[in-house]
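Moderator note: this is an archived Q&A kept for reference. The question asked for a predicted structure of one protein chain; the sequence and the answer are reproduced below.
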Amino acid sequence: MDWRTFVGHHRQRGWFANAVHQERLASTFLMVGPSGIGKRTFARLVAKSLLCTKYQPTEFATCGTCEACVQIEAGTHPDLIEIKREKDKSNLSMEQLVGSDESRMREGLCYEIRMRPYSGRRKIAIVDDVDTLAVEGANSLLKTLEEPPPGALIFLIGTSEQRQLRTIRSRSQIVRFAPLAEDELAILIQRHGLADNPADALRLAQQSHGSLQLAAQGRDESMSEFRTLLIESLDSRPIDFPRLSKSISAHLDSVASEGQARRDQLKWVLDIAIDLYRESMRQRLGVTSSLDAAIRQPSTESDAPGNLQQLAPEILSSLIQRTQQAREQVDRNVSPAALVEAWVTDVTGMSRA
């Protein structure tokens, strides 16, 4: 991967290039935005640009062929430290940050980042899944963030500022990433073999809310079946409250019992509802989409709202606002189960009006 093939996030790339050129790069960056939009790949490309031996760091470019670039692609560069939550754990572990009990502060990220760079340039760390940092883990990281080694660069990657402790936010420069544009995501969908032609790629992109991760899930048969069930349930009159609530909970349980994966799926569920309500509003008002009709063609018959478009525009507007509010609460450590129950209760009541 290099900057020539990287898709999206042009403003962030320009900002980093300018900061590097002027040698005014901060030591710690908190990179936040939805999952599956390229934040980690972006951080690795910044690291590659700074460690590439063919170019000077201020050129902010990569050759892809020097030893440093090859090692970064292989995940073996001695000056690039990358950690993420282990699959069998719900949080980034203390061992990953400061070492085991027997070797505390003699191994782990906080120890390795202070070692002299092998390349003579700088040490760089990429810490993924910082949403899962427990208080103890965050506190162990604070001293490194407060007193970083000279030239060290740390990228903290999460989904939301609200999920981070105030002490972490205050010691980091925050870089916000937005979902990919539909045309950008469509390029990645085809590149990863998730669609056979541009039209199918764009249709899948329109359902994936700027995330390659969601696009990949959209190809899954069980995901597609749940999406159809959700749309049918929200469009039914009256809404079957127990069925809708249980189906959402069962879907979340099938994806993950806890953690960021569960929250990501809940956001996806709410995004489907928002899209459905907006499409119903457009049909209710007789508004035609500006996108090509062939591209906007629904992927299933259930995508075309039936009963919902009979609701008054003010009710549809309230449904959109309530669902957007629920989506914002996902990143505020609200229990997903409680959030689902409250949201389903409210949209059921509103839809009866």
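Archived answer notes: Residues 260-285 form the longest helix (26 residues).
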